[in-house]
Amino acid sequence: MLIYAILPPPLFFFFVGAGKPPMYGDYEAQRHWQEITYNLPVKDWYFNTTDNNLQYWGLDYPPLTAYHSLLCAYVAHLIDPSWVALHTSHGYESQPHKLFMRTTVLVADMLIYIPAVILYCCYLKDASNKKKISSALCILLYPGLILIDYGHFQYNSVSLGFALWGMLFLSYDLDVWGSIAFCFALNYKQMELYHSLPFFCYLLGKCFKKGLMGKGLLSLMKLGFTVVVSFAFCWLPFCMDVRQILQVLRRLFPVDRGLFEDKVANIWCTISVFFKIKTILSAETQFKLSLVLTFLAILPSCIKLTMQPSLRGFKYSLVCCALSFFLFSFQVHEKSILLVSIPVCLLINEIPFMSAWFLLVSTFSMLPLLLKDGLLLSYIVTTLAFLMVCGTSFSILEKTSEADLKLKMFSASIRNYIPWFKIFPKTMKYLFLVSITMMGILTLMSATLDPPQKLPDLFPLTISVVSCLHFLFFLLYFNVIAIWESKSSSNQKKSN
Amino acid sequence: MRGAACLAKKQTIMAAQRSDKLFLPVAFGVTLLKFLLIPTYHSTDFEVHRNWLAITHSLPVSQWYYEATSEWTLDYPPFFAWFEYVLSHVAKYFDREMLVVQNLNYSSHETIFFQRLSVIFTDVLFIYAVHECCKCVNGKQGGKEPFENPSFVLSVLLLWNFGLLIVDHIHFQYNGFLFGFMLLSIARLFQKRHLEGAFLFAILLHLKHINLYVAPAYGMYLLRSYCFTADNPDGSIRWRKFNFLRLTALGLIVCLVTACSLGPFIVWGQLPQVLSRLFPFKRGLCHAYWAPNFWAIYSAVDKALSVIGLKYKFLNPAEMPKAAMTGGLVQEFQHTVLPSVTPLATLVCTAIFMLPSVFCLWFKPQGPRGFLRCLVLCALTSFMFGWHVHEKAILLVILPLSLLSVEKSRDAGVYLILATTGHLSLFPLLFTAPELPIKILLMLLFTVYSFSSLKTLFRKEGPLLNWLETLYLLGLLPLEILCEIVFPFTAWISKFPFLPLMLISVYCALGIMYAWLKLYISVFRGPLTFRQKKE
Fold first, then answer.
1. Could you confirm whether the keyword Isomerase appears in this record (chain A) (predicted)?
2. Given phi > 0 = left and psi -120 to 50 = alpha, else beta, which region is B104?
3. Are residues A177 and A249 in the same domain?
4. 3-class DSSP state of A260
5. CB contact under 8 A, B448 and A3
6. Do both A86 and A35 map to the same domain?
7. CB contact set of B333 (below 8 Å; sequence gap of 6+)
8. pLDDT-based confidence at residue B18 (cuts at 50, 70, 90)
């Protein structure tokens, strides 16, 4: 039975962008990295040399990405050496090469991301067989990841897949393995830092639970040792020289790039519509401001998780932290929303309505990017497919009651103060429908209409603002359930 | 005990209702997939249809079958030309340039978009027809889960059919629309609405004349089971019950449809020209790629004999005709050792092998299911022995056979063999690199689904395939890898470019031949088991 869930998604993946016009940008970046890693010695990868112009798509991801590029480059060299020839291959593009690159994504997906999803769904607690299959299908059909990985061209599924593996291991109490997997994720893409705090807090809380002295301390040391060793393993070729490490770090965290680029659906971009924050505040103030706000936003769920580590709370906290980072932190890219979406995907079985809604909004928030890549048709098709699968397998529109939204505890505690407080299932449904229609209309408008001359960025900005408002609402919601709902589950366990 | 049976029945009915709800998502899902296929490769058939759009739009009807600017002249019957005419009136809102006859090989973005959309939208008829067919299936085999319901399985097998998807939505043709007519007419016959079924089939005949091959099944079934209103108790014919009114009604329908279609051309005296366009016997015995039929085996044997003969000096190289088959061009071709085959010979072969199944329909009528089996056999026989058969014609067999496969385990086994080999033989249609993973993944998806779903459907009746059949089907896998992935890297590719195609089609031909024999045997043994069950 499970084969039905495994096979269609890769199929869908491959169709997205099957006949796309030439792509530059990230596609060329990935190809260029293959060229660099294949032809240059390790010590030159991150340095500006005569053969490695860092201005031209220089390597700015951690070592594991570089190793992956090297591996792909070896295969590419076997097939056609001109694909990875130094200098001469800049901007290279051909049908077979495109096929090769897309196959590498598929292979990476098959090896890391898809098995993690399937395993996660197979071991969902108290879920019927049908539920398992449909949640696997929903997660694998999430349009955002498919469109970015196969259409826009990146290897997000590798780092996200490693993070998923980490989560999987943690849910089986294999803490050491979990931290190794997460270290890999972090060393593949530094953006995984968004997820690092929940991992840290969860493991720390677990150690606290065992007792600060004795057993807890021992396991904490064990975990710390594991992390250090796996980091050392990943950075082995760079460890010899402090200069190397510093240079890599400088490449990974380019602080001087500014508060935000392009149109991102986060709070800074939204505020600057009314208030030109980039010009008014100095760069340092911007940095500090974003740091403080991010910290404040992640605080509640992290404290909660450290105090009461539970698996469910861990998942909620992953969402909250990643979302806070996305909304408030410095130099965020619109693709970073994927880091929020994957933890939300994991909740699709528990809170189908809200998760599906969030996932739709997250894909929508990347629309300007997708339009630039000529992925409009793929966007519409995959979104509709996702909506259809969610609608038929979870009947999301009927799951808007307080219990389905996991808001029972919250409204009960509010009712202590305001007795008439109530969450109307109908209201949520209408809100959802209104938001869906709005997204549909905006998609249509930005695809067909030309923006007025005075406001060339009208549509992308509107999309960012609308999505940002959505995200703020979701941040509130997920924080509420992270704080109230995980308590209720632990209470239930106690009463049981 | 009875209560339990009743409960089981109720559950099955509920599962059927739930699977009915699943029909829409299945249809919608495949439609979305079709949209994703819009930018993929399209074959010369795309230009063929664009040219027909241009011809029908810009020329008077009397010129349609004379126009020859493009090499792709109009060679479908008049109703299809009218269909293109209707489409062309929508096309002008997309791009007027595609409607100019002189614009050969014109393929702007709007043209591609419009043509692809036209296929997707006309497929609505196919979806409706599949929905009607699913109602005709009896749900005896059904399990409790809606996924295990025969009508659900049938809807997936038909809507997601691999062959139809790649031929229509990648290669480019309007088969979905045409099969819509066929399946709808079959469903109407199942629903005892015979006149409607006959009417639909008559239209289908004038849309695409390849359906003439299955016309004997229709004719015989309508004559025997509709014109005779009752049988003797032992199933033999009862001459007194012949209803002349019904025959007249049928005749009238067929004549009227034919008059609408060919009438104008007969009046203008253009009938010979139209017929010469419809039946181009100038083309060769085999299509550019060998369709996996009897003649593929025949030609392969001939080739092998000539190679052996040359090696051991039985044959004189100077006397041999210089013509390589599957050189890519569709030309007349002479066999070297075995006698060459003429169109008349293929026609006689087809007729001879078709007759038994049609006679069976006369002497042992078994209702619409017998008719459907006869239809499948007619299509398969014409595929095996016809002149200049396209490999695409196997769809004419696979799609109607799907209807039978969900009801009887023996048919399911035949279906699996036929569908797998038939679909694999469609692979050469898509030879471009970007489509390679698409076709492999789609094929895997469909094949895995058809095997697993039919297996769960008939899990009480033991395995569907015996060891030999399983071995044969597994053999397809290394063959495909060898031909598509390993062979292009060897030195033989320039020496024998046709070898992989030949290997695949001969291997597939064996399987299809076997399935044909098995299906024929089941026709003759069918009534026995039917009677035994009654006793």
1. no
2. beta
3. yes
4. strand
5. yes
6. yes
7. B284, B285, B286, B323, B325, B340
8. low
- Cβ contact B39–A19 (<8 Å): yes
Nearest alpha carbon to residue A24 among A70, A92, A82: A92
Specify if A496 maps to a domain: no
CB contact B39 to A (< 8 Å) = yes
Q: Is the model's pLDDT at B527 over the cut of 80?
A: no
Question: Given CA atoms B141, B143, B146, B147 in this order, what sign does their dihedral have?
Answer: negative
Instruction: Say if B322 falls within a structural domain.
Output: yes
pLDDT class for A6, splitting at 50, 70, 90?
low
Report the length, in residues, of chain A. 496
Contact A305, A202 (CB under 8 A): yes
Greater model confidence, B438 or B84: B84
**Region A11-22 average pLDDT:** 56
Maximum average pLDDT range among A484-493, B173-182, B443-452: B173-182
Interface test with B, best of A6, A14, A94, A133 (most B CBs within 10 A): A14
Q: CA A287, CA A330: separation in Å to the nearest integer?
A: 6
The shortest C-alpha distance from B27 to chain A (Å) reads 11
Q: What is the pLDDT of residue B265?
A: 87
Residues of chain B positioned with their CB less than 8 A from the CB of A1: 147, 452
Compare CB distances from A381 to B36, B40, B445 and report the shortest one's residue. Answer: B36
What's the CA gap between B55 and A370, in Å, rounded? 39
Tokens 């795309």 found at: B46
Are B433 and A95 in contact (CB < 8 Å)? yes
For residue A35, give how far its alpha carbon lies from the nearest alpha carbon of chain B (Å).
Answer: 23
User: Is there a contact between A99 and B37 if contact means CB atoms under 8 Å apart?
Assistant: no
- Domain residues for the domain of A200 are 10-123+155-253
Collect all residues of chain B within an 8 Å Cβ-Cβ radius of residue A130. 145
Using CB atoms within 10 Å of the CB of residue B378, give its burial: 0 to 12 exposed, 13 to 18 middle, 19+ buried. buried
Query: Do A429 and A448 share a domain, yes or no?
Result: yes
Q: What's the distance, CA B349 to chain centroid? A: 20
Phi-psi region of A262 (alpha: psi -120 to 50; beta: other; left: phi over 0): left
Place of tokens 């505040």: A281
User: Count of domains in chain B?
Assistant: 1
B12 pLDDT above the threshold of 50? yes
B29 contacts on A by Cβ (under 8 Å): 385, 388
Chain segment A222-269, per-residue pLDDT in tens: 889 999 999 888 888 887 778 888 888 888 877 666 677 667 888 888
Q: Which chain A residues contact residue B459 at CB under 8 A? A: none
Q: Does the beta-carbon distance from A7 to B436 stay under 8 Å?
A: no
Alpha-carbon distance A15 to nearest alpha carbon in chain B (angstroms): 6
Is the pLDDT reported for residue B6 higher than 70? no
Per-residue pLDDT at B332: 46
Residues A249 and A263 in one domain: no
A494 located within any domain: no
B477 touches A: beta carbon within 8 Å? no
Question: A15 and B448 in contact by Cβ < 8 A?
Answer: no
Q: Give A7's contacts in chain B (Cβ within 8 Å).
A: 441, 444-445, 448-449
- State how far the Cα of A70 lies from the Cα of A36, in Å rounded to an integer: 8
Residue B210 makes CB contacts below 8 A (sequence gap 6+) with B393, B396
Instruction: Say if residue A101 is in the same domain as residue A225.
Output: yes
DSSP state of A21: P
Question: What percent of chain B has a predicted confidence (pLDDT) above 70?
Answer: 86
B223 touches chain A (CB under 8 A): no
Tell me if ipTM is over 0.85.
no
Is A15 close to B33, i.e. CB distance below 8 A? yes
pLDDT of A390 strictly over 80? yes
Q: Which residues of B touch A384 (CB under 8 A)?
A: 28, 32
Q: What is the pLDDT of residue B178?
A: 93
